[in-house]
């Protein structure tokens, strides 16, 4: 059994998205149990009208308040301790759930998750990792996407370890290829932090393939791409912006005349296949890594399909023991470090 | 008259692209004079077969060697001083040309241009600026795109001044809106350097509109977006990578069956209009800013149309006095600084 706590009130839409998505997953996977956290009356009404086949797959947990998308981190963290987000995370902490999924404000979710769950030993800062669709029809996992600015090489090393464990768990790849995001050979290669990180990654217990560039994310050169949160967030927002612009332009052009509308009709099957292939809803669900618990963050504006994907990612992470894999990778690293220090001491003595 | 020195041998294709592009521009603009720099015999043969209407628009300057795309900066700078790139830049330095256009290796071009032309007073580091197509059908100027990693707030301030002058000159906007690339309000706002840069830009003699995010580049929120060269290069390569992936997927899907090929035929007019709208060849031509001369860098793999666009940008920069505008903006800044210091001294005394 996989037990997933849903922050039902989070995101731009709240219950009308989170509840049907949960019910759909429950229908497909009888082994999943949901803790639906939020306003009890509202949830029960919505659940009744959704008519799930097995009501026993759901437990409703009442939360008397919810965190709004524009609530500050301070408010989310200190003043709304009875929010659906807090209680969903608390369920993970108290081992009533194996994972938490929320579409709430990223900053708030990271702060509250860190406060409630605490970070894993050997991890200084949790990171946000998400898959970006590549031309191989798979996802390239990129981290950090905005939780950390001003990272040290040690932070980036930790991101690489956690990203590798995530890709093992979610993509089922035994030794994911890990690349360090850098800039072209044309310019001076990388900034100071990235250069030092490259050295650290060489001796880490991961399949480090060296530097990669921005376009490698879409080529699928690496399974995991590591960068600091400032760069990752700019990258994510930029590619989202371009994708939106292109889809808008395609639509506008196909609607611009009677002939073009006819062309759109003829081209619909191929256009919708294309849309499915690059549909980033299928990749919704960013992992908050480095915490003592599995937490997935859905896009705030996720629709039912997208939120469903986020739940399924959380489910896969639990089933494939993401947390154990992460802890193991970090332990291997620590062990390697100790060995190196031991050897250095031997040489010195 | 506008005199443009062309590094005819630079880029992935050299003469077969640079020469026809120059001839096309010469045909359209009788007021442009070209200094065609490279292998004299080859250029003269190519020029003869291109049959320009007015041969008087061209002067051939012989260069006995050329810089290859994979030559190191060291080789380009020290060992190939008689290359077409060197001589084209020298023509600008010696006021035989008003601008230089090269499709050669970016790192080499920046190093040689800096060596030959030197930087402007008040500028610590030259930057690379290019326009990225936005959904308003215009270009958002982004800089730096990779010349500088590890920038200080003062460097970013200088980029903002130069970018504003470039947009004035090329886009013809009197007070271009300048945005500072930052990450969302969701996370901690920006890294240390960006926070300090924000303060500096507030009091700069430009139309600073505050922070912008990655997707604002495509929305056209600002005319100029400022970032360090590491972030800018990652951004540029990422969006190029996504654009390539999308265009490949569209092509693949339209060729995947007989029906889809038929659909492609019907949809061709609308697809090609769409392609034109987002065609980044029309935005080819990155400005190397902060030098004592106008230098434009074309994409290495530019075709004739794209190289033509780079030449036209250089022409527009000369005609609209980019260099004077840049110097003026920097002087205003210096003047403001002196005033502030003066006031501070008065307060202290």
Automatic annotation (TrEMBL), chains A, B:
Domain of life: Bacteria
Catalytic EC class: transferase
Keyword Cytoplasm included in the entry's annotation: yes
Keyword field contains Signal: no
Enzyme Commission number(s) of this protein: 2.3.1.274
Reactions the enzyme catalyzes: a fatty acyl-[ACP] + phosphate = an acyl phosphate + holo-[ACP]
Cellular component terms per the entry's GO annotation: cytoplasm
GO MF annotation, one: phosphate:acyl-[acyl carrier protein] acyltransferase activity
Places the protein is found: Cytoplasm
Keywords, ordered alphabetically: Acyltransferase, Cytoplasm, Lipid biosynthesis, Lipid metabolism, Phospholipid biosynthesis, Phospholipid metabolism, Transferase
Gene3D superfamilies: Isopropylmalate Dehydrogenase
Pathway noted in the entry: Lipid metabolism; phospholipid metabolism
GO biological process, one term: phospholipid biosynthetic process
UniProt similarity note: Belongs to the PlsX family.
Task of the protein: Catalyzes the reversible formation of acyl-phosphate (acyl-PO(4)) from acyl-[acyl-carrier-protein] (acyl-ACP). This enzyme utilizes acyl-ACP as fatty acyl donor, but not acyl-CoA.
Subunit architecture: Homodimer. Probably interacts with PlsY.
Protein's recorded name: Phosphate acyltransferase
Organism of origin: Pelistega indica
Taxonomic lineage: Bacteria, Pseudomonadati, Pseudomonadota, Betaproteobacteria, Burkholderiales
